[in-house]
Amino acid sequence: MMRQIPGLHSNQGGADSGLEGLFLVRVDRARYRWQRQTPFVEIEFAILEPKSFEARSFSGRLYCTEKALWRLNWFLRDFGYDAQLLKDDRVDEKALLNLRGVVRTSYTTLNGRCYQNLEAFAPEADWEALDYSSLAQTDGQGGTNGL
Question: For the chain, N or C: smaller number of CB within 10 Å?
Answer without folding.
Answer: N
